[in-house]
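Archive entry. Fields below.
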Amino acid sequence: MNRIEFMTELAALLQDVPAEERRDAMKFYNDYFDDAGEENEQQVIAELGDPAQVAATIKADLEGASKEHGEFTEKGYTDSRFENKNVPVGREYKESGQKSDEYGYRNTEQSRREYDYERSGEQTPPRTNGALKIFLIVILVLVAIPVGIPVAAAILITIAAVGFTILILFFTLVIASVAIAFAGVCVFIAGLVSLVPEIAVGLALIGTGLILTVVGVVLTVASVRVCMIVLPGICRGFMWIVSRPFQRRAVV
Amino acid sequence: MVFNTGAALLDAIVLAVVSREKEGTYGYKITQDVRTTIEVSESTLYPVLRRLQKDECLEVYDRQIDGRNRRYYKVTARGMAQLDLYRREWKSYSIKINELFKGGVAV
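PREDICTED_STRUCTURE:
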């Protein structure tokens, strides 16, 4: 590993710390390499060790900065950043699973107090992350309510309108058929009336009227049958569409 | 070394090293100076410097050296007060420990 590789890897590992912290750390180690000189580059890298370890040391200090300072003084608390440089790495190898053999043995040397400190340090970050997640979800819900409710209402109304239109369409067919039959009867009566002055016209009208009546009755029966088949289907389909989002939410 | 160096002692050592330079000093030199006294890994000191800087015990500034900016650390008034506190604490602490050890030898 050379200096460039070391710095690149360190920068990548520090992606999740605040930008200012990352810049400061990068500046420090960049200066460090500059001041150590090119001839000492390999020695410095060997001394610094794994970039993951360096990054973990920086992160451990950021996380523990608020509570640790002044609390564990002169009482056997071993500074996690000093000599036992595995302490932050302890977390690292649990994630990567690589370095446990190399550094794991140190854990047995550490005092109980230190272990507790380390453990509490481990538990804290997920807790804040969880709180952050809940907070974000709450924000999301709050933002979604003003948008989501009108959108849901619009979808529901659209579905209802389409269903109603189809219903009306079939209902219109029935009405049209009944109207044709009614018109046929009217024409038939008109034919009877005009039979006395004009026999030919009267007979023609009576014939037309009878045909229309029969056609109208047949169509009425047919359209009512179609409606009886189609309407329950439409109702079921409508109910299915409306209930689908709720079912899906229940599954999730 | 048999004895561990605690966080407060490490802070005190770093403050003492930086305070020796009136104009301030830089990361590499601080590390080398500290390492003349105690065994400390090179990656240990950056977090200490950063924390002291946040606690306003150290201030940083960049100075042009060989065509590049080198970051310098300088002890603030607050840092000096903190260092004085550490010195006093260390004195009383080390006296007590010395007494105890001497007593142990005598018995």
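CURATOR_NOTE: The two ends of chain A are 47 Å apart (CA to CA).
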